[in-house]
Amino acid sequence: MSTVKLTVNGKAVSADVEDRTLLVHLLRDHLGLTGTHIGCDTSQCGACVVHIDGCAVKSCTVLVGQANGANITTIEGIAKADELHPMQAAFRDNHGLQCGYCTPGMIMTSIDIVTRHGSGLDEATVRQELEGNICRCTGYHNIVKAVLDAAGRMNVAQAAE
């Protein structure tokens, strides 16, 4: 057993966990943050994507000890009070989800894409960057539209800050 300390969605967290505990299990089983989904357990689907120190990471491949001291953001931590994050709003407005299982990971990955590329994104870049996230329902067309829409919204939101 090891004690890990990290910040999850802005709150300090300390947990005693087995050394083999994956970050996704700490989030879901110990902290009750079930928005981070377990889809494949093999790093193929992207349903478990969270941000570790601002970078999108598949949490099913990270041991909790590797994240010790890190700042973790999950899908539960991106909205501000009752206001959706611009990416969440864009997914809603562009019908970028159907069953919703992949949506938290898609949104977290998409925020990272926009953060790295800015509002100058094009469809080809979005499609290439989303290759690590699997959606079996949508066909990706509306997801790509949502990411491109959110890129503009996030740029406007950042400019206003």
Characteristic key phrases:
161 residues; alpha+beta; Ubiquitin-like (UB roll); DNA polymerase, domain 1; 2 domains; five-stranded mixed beta sheet; 5 helices; 5 strands
Describe this structure in words.
By secondary structure, the chain is an alpha+beta fold. It folds into two domains: 2-76, Roll (Ubiquitin-like (UB roll)), CATH 3.10.20; 86-160, [2Fe-2S]-binding domain (DNA polymerase, domain 1, Orthogonal Bundle). Helix content is 36%, strand content 16%. It is built from five helices and five strands, in the order ββαβββαααα. The chain has helices at residues 23-30, 86-93, 103-117, 123-129, 141-160, and strands at residues 2-8, 11-17, 49-52, 55-58, 71-73. Strands 2-1-5-3-4 form a five-stranded mixed β-sheet, with helices on both faces. Strand 1 and strand 2 form a beta hairpin. Helix 2 (86-93) runs antiparallel to helix 5 and helix 3 (103-117) crosses helix 5 (141-160). The N and C termini lie far apart (43 Å). The mean pLDDT is 93.
Short description:
This protein has helices at 23-30, 86-93, 103-117, 123-129, 141-160, and strands at 2-8, 11-17, 49-52, 55-58, 71-73.
Identify the CATH homologous superfamily of the largest domain: Beta-grasp domain
Q: Number of domains in the coordinates? A: 2
CATH class of the largest domain, named Alpha Beta
What is the structural class? alpha+beta
Strand line-up across the major sheet: 2-1-5-3-4
Task: Give the overall average pLDDT.
Answer: 93
Low-confidence stretches: none
How helix-rich are the residues, as a percent range? 25-40%
CATH architecture of the largest domain: Roll
Strand content: 15-25%
Examine the coordinates and then state which fold CATH places here, giving the name of the CATH topology of the largest domain. Ubiquitin-like (UB roll)
Helix/strand order, N-terminal first: EEHEEEHHHH
Question: How many alpha or pi helices?
Answer: 5
Tertiary shape: globular
Distance between the termini: 43 Å
Report the radius of gyration as a whole number of Å.
Answer: 15 Å
Major beta sheet summary: 5 strands, mixed
User: What's the total number of strands?
Assistant: 5
